[in-house]
Each structure stands twice: as structure tokens, then as C-alpha cells.
Design a protein that fits this description.
This is PITC1 protein. GO terms for molecular function: phosphatidylinositol binding; phosphatidylinositol transfer activity. The structure is a single chain. This protein is an alpha+beta fold. It is 26% helix and 16% strand. Strands 1-2-3-4 form a four-stranded antiparallel sheet. A hairpin with a 2-residue loop joins strand 1 and strand 2. The chain is globular, with a radius of gyration of 21 Å.
């Protein structure tokens, strides 16, 4: 129901989305795959790499050129002064007016990224693939815009909610995760499974983490199932199996 009308017109009523995440702060990977229950199964995937650094966003090529898939665009998000969709605006979550009682941070003024201490930047490399002839560019651009809005709103909230999570112990964090998961699943009518955390042996390789992060050993090797989608040349013409039913009927009529 939240999709634009042109997207609803080509989306079946029954489908599922699988999200897999590999979190090893200050480096994380999130991968989504979207499978449609119909004959024109398109290749739809969203792959997001995240790195955190203690700076104001001035690290260049932080993911290295060999990890950038095809054409790319650099976008800077300012949680205080970038516009967000009006329906998501909450005055209590506006960093321009919020002031933290616990940390004394905020409100954020013009130029805050250059003079605020401490400060941390979340760098994200977002790759979107949707291989359906006639819709590839439109869908990929739409998904990038939606992800941009989600990241902007989510990080505004993380700042404005600092007094709720600042100082939490790990046990309190796990309990909060469990309660949130149960409440969310109750809203959509699912039974919440128990959250389990692996306490396996840590990797031997280590990398420096931001000063704002706890000292944590880090392996750059993510699980194989989270490998980034392969770069494929943009199709000039689509094979029969990737055509939408409406396009197939129109082609037959012509």
C-alpha cells in the first residue's frame, strides 16, 4: 500500500522479502533479496555496506574502488538540515531543536558538522539491482530515494532518542531488542522467535575501530551468503522470461 501506483500495478499481492545482516561494528553488511511468486521472476536485490569513522564525512573512497559496483553517486546526508517527507516529520525528533539531558548534545546549528565534538560519520555503499526490461532504471532510482529517506529519518531518530539508549548495558540492549521484536510481530500477527546471539570464537584479525566504539576484533571477511551482487551489463533487450505479462501481451498484439 505504500508503493507508488506504477509499482503496485506490476507487483503481485503475495511476495516475500528476505533480509540477511552481518554486524561487526564498525563494519556491517545488510542484504535484501525480493522474490516474487509469479512467472516473471526478476532479479531484485539491495546490498548495503556500512563503515563508521570518527570524522565529519571527509574520508574519500572509504570502500575502495574495487568494491564500487558500476556507476555510482556520492550523496551527503545532513540529519539536521536535509528535508524529509512531511509525513515523517516529528518536532521532538528534529535535531535543530532537540537537546539531550544526559549528554548535553544538541540542538544542532548550521555548520554543526565542522565544529561538533564528538562526531561520527556513517558511510554507506548502497547497491540496487532490478533486472526487468522497461522498469530497471525507474525502480532502481526509486529504491535509492526510499533508502536515502530511511537512512535520514533513522539517524535523526537515533540522535533524538539518545537519552533513551545512552548508558544501556548489553543485557538491557538485548532485552530491548526482544521487547521490540515481540511488539512488532504482535502488530503483524506473528509469533516472535527468541533472539540468540553467537558467542563463538572471535576472529584473529583486528582493525582499529572509531574511538566512539568499544575495542572489538574485526574480520573483513563477511559470510559467503552476503557476497555483493555481481555486476551485470545493462540489458539493451530483455529475454522472454524477464518480460512483464502486460509487455508480453502488447508485444504479441503488435
Amino acid at each position: 500500500s505504500k508503493l507508488p501506483s506504477w509499482a503496485r500495478a506490476v507487483t503481485p499481492r503475495i511476495f516475500y522479502i528476505t533480509e540477511k545482516a552481518w554486524n561487526y561494528y564498525p563494519y556491517t553488511i545488510t542484504a535484501d533479496s525480493h522474490s516474487l511468486q509469479c512467472s516473471f521472476l526478476p532479479k531484485f536485490s539491495i546490498y548495503i555496506e556500512t563503515k563508521y569513522e570518527d570524522n565529519c564525512g571527509d574520508s574519500e573512497n572509504i570502500f575502495h574502488s574495487d568494491k564500487i559496483l558500476g556507476d555510482h553517486e556520492v550523496s551527503f546526508l545532513d540529519i539536521a538540515f536535509d528535508e524529509i517527507p512531511e509525513r515523517y516529520y516529528r518536532s521532538l525528533e528534529d535535531p535543530r531543536f532537540f537537546s539531550s539531558a544526559k549528554t548535553g548534545r544538541g540542538p544542532l546549528r548550521e555548520g554543526w558538522r565542522q565544529h561538533t565534538k564528538p562526531i561520527m560519520c556513517s558511510y554507506k555503499l548502497v547497491s540496487v539491482k532490478f533486472e526487468v526490461w522497461g522498469l530497471q532504471t525507474r525502480v532502481e532510482q526509486f529504491v535509492h530515494k526510499v533508502i536515502r529517506d530511511i537512512l535520514l529519518i533513522g539517524h535523526r531518530q537515533a540522535f533524538a532518542w539518545v537519552d533513551e539508549w545512552c548508558g544501556m548495558t548489553m543485557e538491557e540492549v538485548r532485552r530491548y531488542e526482544q521487547e521490540t521484536q515481540e511488539a512488532t510481530n504482535e502488530l503483524i500477527g506473528l509469533v516472535a522467535p527468541a533472539i540468540s546471539v553467537s558467542e563463538g570464537e572471535q576472529p584473529t584479525a583486528t582493525h582499529s575501530a572509531p574511538a566512539s566504539a568499544p575495542s572489538t576484533p574485526l574480520s573483513d571477511e563477511a559470510p559467503e551468503f552476503l557476497a555483493p551482487p555481481k555486476t551485470r551489463p545493462r540489458k539493451k533487450s530483455a529475454p522472454e522470461t524477464l518480460m512483464l505479462p502486460a509487455l508480453r501481451e502488447r508485444t504479441g498484439a503488435e
